[in-house]
Amino acid sequence: MPVVERQSKDVKQRYRWAIKVFRAVAGVKDEYTDDDIRRAIEKLECRYKPSSVNSIFKVCRTYIPGWPKDLSYKFSSADVTKVIAGIGDIAKMIYAVKGDGDAMYRGYMLLSTLYGLRCSELAAVKPEDIRLDQNIFFARTLKGGVQREHLIPESVKHHFSGLSIFPQSRQLLTAIYKMIEAKAGIEHRQGAGWHAIRHALATGLAENGADPTMAKNFLRWKDTGMYENYIMFTYRTDRVIFDIHPFLSLWEDK
Q1: Is 142 exposed, middle or buried (0-12, 13-18, 19+ CB in 10 A)?
Q2: Bridge-partner residues for 130, per DSSP?
Q3: What is the pLDDT of residues 166-209, one digit of tens each?
Q4: Can you give the three-state secondary structure of the chain, one letter per residue?
Q5: Are 162 and 103 in contact (CB under 8 A)?
Q6: Domain coordinates in residue numbering, the chain
Q7: What's domain 87-251's architecture?
Q8: How far is CA 249 from CA 20, 138, 252, in A?
């Protein structure tokens, strides 16, 4: 697949993953029939959301030899639902790992609920990003967002000690999310994941009266408008946000 080899490292990894996933359910063949592919898609739809199946299909159609070029796969955008995790479920997940001995589960849940990190951002966290001596966490923001230093709240600082956090694949992070759900006794719903927690955090901040500009900065969104681009944010943003943060109190020891 010479065209794949010319892509960036991240793109090559995604393309190879897509081909591997397809071949895991369809088998490795010199040629695939329409029925082969439709049966494989049915199996994939039981495991992945429609947009992911669509991406897998497009990659395989382009790079797998012997693929019927006239076969198409489309999904309706109406079938794709954005899941916002409820605060009750998030509380269960926090309590499931808060006192648990697994420092990896606790670490990713802590960073996700406090700072609303995307899955790709969680996957990029390095041990040196947590600077306990300075009460600072450095978010390696992706997707064109702004990389940012965040304050570590003093009231939950002890939870950051001894965390087992290293760069991971997004697939492993997704599996970790499901494992935490299982520990909390929550049945997994299609679309639930780290981004659902980010959505819930954004919703909770809005409901608690957060200033939109501060909330956007805290969540490291890129498109905050020209006015906001000229504002120099300080740690005051974090202090204000943490005063109305919907999940911070769940980590605090009563």
Answers
A1: middle
A2: 137
A3: 888 888 898 999 999 999 999 988 778 898 899 899 889 988 99
A4: CHHHHCCCHHHHHHHHHHHHHHHHHHCCCCCCCHHHHHHHHHHHHCCCCHHHHHHHHHHHHHHCCCCCCCCCCCCCHHHCCCCCCCHHHHHHHHHHHHCCCCHHHHHHHHHHHHHCCCHHHHHCCCHHHEECCCCEEEECCCCCCCCEEEECCHHHHHHHCCCCCCCCCHHHHHHHHHHHHHHCCCCCCCCCCHHHHHHHHHHHHHHCCCCHHHHHHHCCCCCCCHHHHCCCCCCHHHHHHHHCCCCHHHHCCC
A5: yes
A6: 1-80, 87-251
A7: Orthogonal Bundle (1.10)
A8: 42, 22, 5
Read off the tokens for 3. 């065209």
pLDDT score, position 221: 77
